[in-house]
Every structure is written in structure tokens, then in C-alpha cells.
Amino acid sequence: MAKEYEVVIGLEVHVELATKTKIFCGCSTAFGGAPNTHTCPVCTGMPGSLPVLNKQVVEYAMAVGVATNCEITRHGKFDRKNYFYPDNPQNYQISQLYLPICRNGYVEIETENGTKKIGIHEIHMEEDAGKLIHDEWDDVSLVDYNRSGVPLIEIVSEPDMRSAEEVIAYLEKLRMLIQYLGASDCKLQEGSMRADVNLSLREKGTTEFGTRTEMKNLNSFTAITHAIKGEIERQSDLLEAGEKVVQETRRWDDTKGESYAMRSKEDAQDYRYFPDPDLIPIDISEEWLEKVKASQPEFRDAKKKRYAEEFGLPEYDIDQITSEKALADIFEATTAICNQPKKVSNWLMVETMRLLNAHEMDASDIKFSAKHLADLIGLVDQKIINQPVAKEIFEHMFTDDVDPVAYVEEHGLKQESDEGALKAVVEKVMADNPKSVADYRGGKEKAIGALVGQTMKAMGGKADPAVVTKLLKELL
Amino acid sequence: MDLLKYSAKELSDKIKAGEVTVKEAVDACFANIDAKEESVHAYITICREEAYKKAEEVQKKIDAGELTGPFAGVPVAIKDNMCTEGILTTCASKILGNFVPTYSSEAVKKLEEAGVVVLGKTNMDEFAMGSTTETSAFGVTRNPRNTEHVPGGSSGGSAAAVAAEECFMALGSDTGGSIRQPASYCGVVGIKPTYGTVSRYGLVAYGSSLDQIGPLCKTVEDAAITLSIISGQDQKDSTSIPRNDLDFTKALVEDVAGMKIGIPKAYFGEGLDAEVKDAVLAAAEALKAKGAIVEEFDLDYVKYAIPAYYTIADAEASSNLERFDGIKYGYRTEEFQGLHNMYKKTRSEGFGPEVKRRIMLGSFVLSSGYYDAYYLKALRVKALIKQAFDKAFEKYDVILGPVAPTTAPKLGESLSDPMKMYLGDIYTIAVNLAGLPGISVPCGTDSKGMPIGLQLIADCFNENVLLQTAYTYEQMTKKGGN
Amino acid sequence: MDNASCRVLWEAICDNRKEPTMANVISDETIEYVGILAKLELDDAQKEQAKKDLAEMLDYIDELSELDTSAVEPMSHVHPTCNFFREDVVTNGDDRENILKNAPEEKEGAFVVPKTFD
Fold first, then answer.
1. CB of A60 within 8 A of CB of A19?
2. Which 3 state secondary structure label does DSSP give B330?
3. pLDDT at A2
4. Domains of chain B by residue range
5. Is B178 a catalytic residue?
6. Which of A126, A241, B312, B400 registers the highest number of CB atoms within 10 A of its CB?
7. Which pLDDT tens digit goes with each residue over B420-474?
8. How confident is the model over B319-332, as pLDDT tens digits?
9. Phi and psi of A160, rounded to 5°?
10. C-alpha span between B438 and B195 (Å, rounded)
11. Is residue A293, in this structure, part of any structural domain at all?
12. Which of B93, B136, B154, B173 is catalytic?
């Protein structure tokens, strides 16, 4: 009978901060751009160049620390992590080992067994590395330093997670907190959030940790889930066979569904950390910390509670519209203008989500303004346009943020609600469709649908369907 | 009068008065360079074309009244570890043998804004690691006072260029005495400012927490002027310090009455050459005669400065020099198999033996298992050394001592025994560890005619006291016909 | 040398070093290890010299252990200043031409390096 194992997981999560510039120089952090077009002597490690710390990086790191219940290190500094690799232009990475900016925090996640605290060991600031692109033609690698020096925070959890589900819940929680803070967009696919999984097994009931491995290259929640399952299997197979788990770093290949050890004999893994003499310490005053605390936004949990109380929205709606901060933001802004929370929520949950999916966009990419969405809802409410026309206009709002009021004017989309004007059309439709009329009169109530449809068609979609139905019923 | 005999300030005055043109000054320097470089070899790179172009521009600005500063039109030299836009910057190393920066160091920029003309880049110990300028990959520099002797180092090229009148002023850098010691060996004035006074941006780092740029000059006045020009907090250097008063020429006052000068007993013990000792003590006597209060005192931890220094400087250097890897700039080995082989071959071929020695020691003291015992220990000793100076400056305005135990040794004498060379830094390196300003002023020669330097040390940010004392002494020696 | 054997070797060296009265003796393995860290390749003669030099320097540095520094904080920076920041404003434009000017080898706007196994 096989032994029963408990899985122990800790996470190292790297998050790219949403600053405009890099951590130590005034180069843009914008994505894209031809290789090395966002570089300068500092982020390419030119001789004599020196780093100067971006204040916003410290503020974001502090904000994340406060949001995750960490102690903020009041007197911190940066250290150099020395290792040779071409993506690292100085051959040392500026990071924090000895005095990370945040320590001893936690977040709460929901599990099958209720709320669980996941400890956060520390959060430190560091610089990202450049990108290596393999050149098949010449069989060499090409180095692009555009990402070199982009600010990161690394959030190191305690080994408190026991399943893939808990890992995903923890990551979701972090993603929401950080996104709500505006400190990062936290996109796994684009690499602005990256998770390394430290995993070990131990026999159930024991307290000592087993030997762990570190899994890298996990760029989606699915990959993380697969990698965890794969690694649990691999380690338990080893243990079952009486072999030992080797402490090592492994790379997950999601297409193959397996991992392999990353080894290099020229890599001593002795990083020779020491305080960076080019950067002076960071001193966080009470005042500064209080300011950061005071500017913490309303997070998802608080928003959910408030939406239920203030707007009386269904739980499903609330879950949807708070799932991305950008959605919640536009919900609140639109509701503030039109005071129609359920209608706003519907537009966001249905049409917005549909279009986001169709365009493969994120909520943070939404272009239309709250004002325009409120206007659109108003147009429908005032029966100036009908719902199908509104949907059509919304598609244009979604792609180009058109002004719905102006759009209705320009394209003559106002619906006809005047009974007198519609009566003639209805009468003509009845005359042209004797079968439907007969069906209705014969008791087939559904037949009225066809007649409404024909009337709408005759009106080029611009009739008020309620008025049309009313007229039909009268005339029939 | 031969215009090469002028100080930088005197030359600029003559230029502004229309008695000498900038071109004439540059001509004179190049004529002298042509005559002396073969024996002295102070320069790695000479920028004739750029210098004449610059001379013309500067002359126009002077004529138009746009450039009126004390150094307008002065031909200068720059140590080859400071980046100069469009001009080769090698650090005297094969690994940077072809490196042409696309930016200038902040200190050079400031000097150029003040209207100097850069003649070229001076020789040095490779990456400033050495005390003789013999570790340069581009040949040794010889002491202009006697070419059988070294000029000192690591700013040996800068000191030699000033002493040989191959320029009117030169910038050097000082990590453990690299301005003061060659100044002393060559008989010129050299000052290492308080750490953080001059921006390090564009200075190729050796020991980042110790490096400071400073001038090597003919006179204390020139040194004060240079310092006034190049100092100031820089938004590009996080370790640069805001300072209120950057006009150091105000300190050029002949007055040491009541000045309290302390002489550390440990600076005059075993190992100090008798002639050097006599000359330095005579200087102390001269200051005393001018009204200074001079007394001996016990400065603690003197002997621990060297081991602490080499631990810290080499640790920082091992990391600072990792960027030289054959990828972004500089030398890359011809043939290699794979990435790590390229790294190793490039660096092994590109660095000289002294640099390798220091990188290895630095890597070792930072490595797993040794960090606490060596590196952190050295940082603690550094704190003790700083405290010892704090205590001394509670009592004294200035600390006086020799710059080096001996005058300039002969070529080839030092390199055979690196330990001995390191020990020669005993009087200068504590100043770097404690971030203090220090100056070397000529105080006579030994029986072989080699110059001796007097070192004055003040508390952080007290360059004025240093300059005032040095100026007073210098004026005495001039009047005394020394 | 792979990581594991590096580590074993290193532990052995560390143990060796704990002998307080013994002057430093640098083994071949240590020089090999330091060579990996510093990316330096030494021939046999250079290795012997390096062993001697390193041992001599370490003996000298060991003098520091004479001082009781247990109550002293390590001092990285001599000045007690803190908080040197820049504002989060883009100041640099496209400087690629300058950045690549000194590159030993360049292709399509990037630095060329021997193939890295990823």
C-alpha cells in the first residue's frame, strides 16, 4: 500500500510594476518596441553608469505590502546578486536580500474548508532582466535589453499551500489586490505576473519538510495546475521507488506536459550578495507610510459587500463586475452618472464581456467612457432607441468610443414611437401577411412575433417594439 | 616667461587678458608632449584634433565674453577611467582597449562647461588597481623627475602629465590614495575630496564606496578652483551629497594661527623612510611657527585599515568588473566554445594579473561561507576606523602625516611583491574608508631629488580647512625659495 | 564541476577554514571554484601563483579577527544619508545606435552572444 503524502507548496511570485519608467533609469517600460530601443547606459550596464531609484517603485512595493498585511521595513537597502548571464547586462542583478521592503504578511483565501491564511515571508524590489531570442539562422542568441531594469516585486510566500487549488486561489487573491492598487496589470500570459512553484512532499502526519524543487516557466493558471500535478506525481514516484528528490530548479514545458532540470556546470549558484554601494538606504518615515496606508483603495472584498448593500445587485453580477478592477471602475463611474446599477451591470457582464472575448482584450483595455455608457442607457430608457439598435451602437463605442447621442443623430437611428405614424405601417404589414393574422386570430398568440418582426423590418429597425406590439394587439 | 610655467589660473588670466591665445597654450602643451612623451608616457590617448577644435570654440567664447571663469582656455588631461564622449576610454585595460563612450562623465562635463580644453587621456594602473602605473596594459608611465622611477599610481599618468608640464591640470581618481600618492611622488598638489562631493557618474567604478574624483595641479589654488568647478550633487549619482558652499577658493587664506593639527604617532613608526619623516615633521614645524598648535596623538586602528580596505575594495571590484564580459563593449576573445567559455577566455585574456588577483580575492571574500567572516568583518572595522577619526576630529582641525612611506621607487621594484605594494598605502587608505578629504602638498625632496608629499586630512566636508592649511604651507615654501 | 560537487567541495573548504590557528592554504578546488565565480581561466602556473597570493592576502586579512567587533554595525556607506530618488518620468528616448556602437557583434539591433540553452 502506497504511503500517503501531503504536498507542501510555497510560491515566489514576480510582479512587474506599472511604472512609466524603469527602476533605476528614465527609460520607458512600454511593451513592444524594436530591440534595445528602450535602453540607456544604465540599463545596459555601460561602464561608469549609475542607478538612481524610481520613487514610484518604492511606493508601489509599500502599497502591496500594506495590502498584504506586511510589516514595512523602515530602513531598507538594495543588494547585488552576482551571476553571469547575458540577459543581465551588469552580470549582477540589483535586488534586496538582507532588508526586503516588506516582511511577515499574509493574505486570506477561500478554500473548501473555509478561510485560510497564506503567509507572506517577504516582498522585495528588484530589476527585471533583458530578453534572449534564439537566432536559428546563425545558431546564436540575440540580447534585447528593453526589459532590463523594468521594476519587479518578488512576493515570497510561506510554504502554506497544500494543493493546486489553493495556489490558484492565492494567485487570484494577489492578482486582485495588486490590480486594485494599480501597481500592476498582473497578466500571466504577458509575463507581468510570473510564479515559481516550490514544491515538496512529506508523509502525512510528519512535520518536517521534504526536499523541494523549484518549478519555473509557468505562464498561465492552467500551466501552474498542470505543473503542480506533474511534479506531485514525479516526486511521489521517486519516493515510492525509494529514491531521493534532488533539490533543483526545473523548467515546465506545458506543451509536453513535463518538466526537466535546469543545470549548468558553469553555474555555481553562489550569488555573493552584498549591499549595493551605488545606492543609498531607503528610509520610510511614519508620515510616508501613513500616506501610503491612507491611499489604499477599496479592495474587491469590500467592494462586493458594498455593491450588495448599496446597489442590491445579485451575487453573480457582483462577482463578474469586480473580477477586474477596470470593470468595477467603469461600473461605479457609470452608475454614478445614470443611477441604474443593474442596467450598467448587464451591459458590462453581457455585451462588454462578449466583445472583450471576441477581441481577445482585457478589461484594462476598455476604451469607452462611463459617460457614453450612461448616455446609451439613457437613450434606451427614454425610448429614443430600442435595445437592438443600442447593441449595435455599443459595438462602435467598444471599438472607437463613439458618442452614442451624436451617433444616433448622425445615423438617424431614433426609433418611431408615435402611434399615428406607426399605424399605417402596421396596417400594411397586416395586409401583406394574412396568414400570420389568421393564425393569431385563430389562437396562435405566438404569430404576433412574426408581425412585430415584419413591422420592425419595414421600419428599418427603428420602431419602438412595445408600441408596435400594442398597436398590433389593438388592430388584431 | 615660458608659458608652460604658469599655473592653470595664471594661464587663464593671461588668456582672458589677451596676452596668450588658447591655441598658443595648446601648441605649447603638444610641443612639450612631443618632446617628453617618449620618456614619460603620461598619456594613453592624445586628442590633438579635438583639442584644437575645442581651443577655437573656447577662444571665441572668451573673446565674446561668454567664458570668464578661472579656468577658461586651460589645457587639461583626464585619467583614462573617466568616460569621455567620442574619445577612447580604456581604464588602461585590454578589455576596454577599443571602448569609445557615447557619454561623458559628469566631472568632465563640468570642466568642459568651464572652458577647459581636454588634451588627452592619461595612463593609470589597470582599472586603478595599483600604486605605480605599472599595471597598465599600455606600458608604464615614468616619473618626470627621474624616469628611472615610477610616478606612483593609480593616477600616475595624470600626476606625471602635470609634473612634466604636458598639461596644466589633470583629473585623477582616488580609491585608496590614487591621487595623493602619485601627486606626492611627482611633486604636485593632489586632493581627494569628501566622498560624495564629486559625481562618480561616468567614472568606471573600482571600489564604488571609496572612489572619488579629484584634481592634480601645480598649486593649491588650482586645486581649489578645480574642486569648485567639479563639485556638486548630481541627480545621476545617488551617493553624491548636497553641499552648501562649493566655492573652495575662499579658503585660500594664509593663516593657521590657532589651527589645531594632530600628528598620529602610528604614522611615524616603523617602515617610514627617515628622509620622508624629517621632511614631513619639518613641515609640521613650519606650520607651528605660523601659529598652528601641533601635537602628537594616538590614532586607533591604523594597522587594520589595509586589510579592511583590500577586502572591501576588492569585493566591490569583483562585482563592478563583472560587466566586462565581451558582449556589450570592449574586447571579446577570438575563439570560444559556448557562452561560459567565451566569458572565461575574454576575461582571462582581457584583464591583467593584478586585476585578476583582486577580482579573485573579492569573489572569495563574498562567497558563501565567507561573507560574514571577511566582508562584514571589514565593514565593521571600517566603522571603527571612522569612529577613530571622529574622535580625532573632536580635538583637531587637521591631521598631518606623510602620504607614502618612501619616495617614488624605481620601476619594477614593486610589482614583484604585491603585498609590499599594498602596505605602501598605509597612510592614504584610511581616508577613503572614512570618506574624508585629504590633500598631498609637496614638502621638499629626498637626497636623490625625488619629491616628498605632505598629507593633510580633515573631517568630512571640511575641505576648506584642508585647503587653507595647505595654501599657507605652500606660500611659506614658495617664499622660502623651496 | 556541477552544483552538487561544488557545494560538497565548498563545505569541505569551509570546515578547513574554521581552524583558527592555521594559516590559509588554498586548494586547487578553491581556485577552480573562484575561477567559476569570477569567470577566469588560469593555466597551471597562474593557478599556483593565485593560490599563493590568495593565501597570503587572507593571512593578512585575518588580522582583522584580532578586533572585537561584536558590538559594531557594519558600515556600508560613510554618510548617513537616505532616500535618493528620481520621479517616474520618461527622460530617455531611443538611443539604440549609441548603445550598440561598441558591441563586438550585433545583429538586427541586438547584441549577439553564443547560444544560450534556455
1. yes
2. coil
3. 63
4. 1-482
5. yes
6. B312
7. 778 889 999 999 999 999 999 999 999 999 999 999 999 999 999 999 999 999 9
8. 999 999 999 999 99
9. -100, -5
10. 11
11. no
12. B154
Are B318 and A143 inside 8 Å of each other by CB? no
CB B184 within 8 A of CB B190: yes
Q: How confident is the model at residue A264 (pLDDT cuts 50, 70, 90)?
A: low
Name the architecture of domain B1-482.
Alpha-Beta Complex (3.90)
Which residues form the domain of C31? Answer: 3-66
One domain for residues A206 and A132 = yes
Of A44, A47, A84, Cβ closest to residue B83: A47
Residue C86: its chain A contacts at CB < 8 A? 21, 26, 52-55
Measure in Å the smallest separation between the Cα of B218 and chain A Cα atoms.
28
The residues in A 100-129 lying below 8 A from B, measured between CB atoms, are none
Range of the domain at A436: 419-475
CB distance C75 to B382 below 8 Å:
yes
The reply to whether A50 and A153 lie within a common domain is: yes
What is chain A's mean pLDDT, rounded?
92
Q: Is residue C9 part of a domain?
A: yes
pTM of the model: 0.91
In the set B79, B109, B110, B382, the catalytic residue is B79
> Across chain B, which distance is largest between two alpha carbons, in Å?
70
DSSP readout, B444-467? Answer: EE-TTS-EEEEEEEE-TT-HHHHH
Indicate if A241 and A371 belong to the same structural domain: no
Residue range A198-222: average pLDDT? 91
pLDDT at A143: 97
AA letter at B362: G
Question: Residue B170 pairs with which residues in a beta bridge?
Answer: B77, B216
CA–CA distance, B119 with B99 (Å, rounded to integer): 18
Last residue of a domain, one of A256, A288, A320: A288
Note the residue count of chain B.
482
Give catalytic status of residue B395 as yes or no.
no
Residue C117 lies inside a defined structural domain of this protein: no
SS3 category, A282 = strand
Please state the domain count of chain C: 1
Helix (H) or strand (E) holding A199: strand A193-203
Average pLDDT of the residues in A30-50: 96
A64 secondary structure, DSSP code: H
Q: Is the pLDDT of residue C10 over 80?
A: no
Q: Inform me whether the pLDDT recorded for C117 exceeds 70.
A: no
- What pLDDT does A431 receive? 85
Q: Which long-range contacts (CB under 8 A, 24 or more apart) does A237-246 make?
A: A239/A3, A239/A5, A239/A201, A239/A210, A240/A2, A240/A3, A244/A211, A245/A200, A245/A201, A245/A210, A245/A211, A245/A212, A245/A213, A246/A211, A246/A213
> What pLDDT, on the 0 to 100 scale, is given for residue B1?
59
CA distance B345 to B149: 34
Tell me the pLDDT tens digit for each residue of A375-387.
999 999 988 888 8
pLDDT digits (tens, 9 = 90+) for B196-209: 999 999 999 999 99
Sorting pLDDT into bands at 50, 70 and 90, what band is C14?
Answer: very low
Last residue of a domain, one of A411, A436, A462: A411
> Is the ipTM value over 0.90, yes or no?
yes
**Contact check, Cβ <8 Å, B383/C73:** yes
What's the one-letter identity of residue A29?
T
Reply yes or no on whether B154 is catalytic: yes
pLDDT in tens, A102-158: 999 999 999 988 999 999 999 999 999 999 999 989 999 999 999 999 999 999 999
How far is the C-alpha of C55 from the C-alpha of C37, rounded, in Å? 18
Which amino acid, one-letter code, is at A3?
Answer: K
C-alpha cell at A198: 516550490
Render B93-153 in DSSP notation, one character per residue: -GGGTT---SS--HHHHHHHHTT-EEEEEE--SGGG--SSS-S-TT-----TT-TTB---S
- Residues in A closer than 8 angstroms to C77, CB to CB, are 277, 280-281
Residue B135 has pLDDT above 90, yes or no: yes
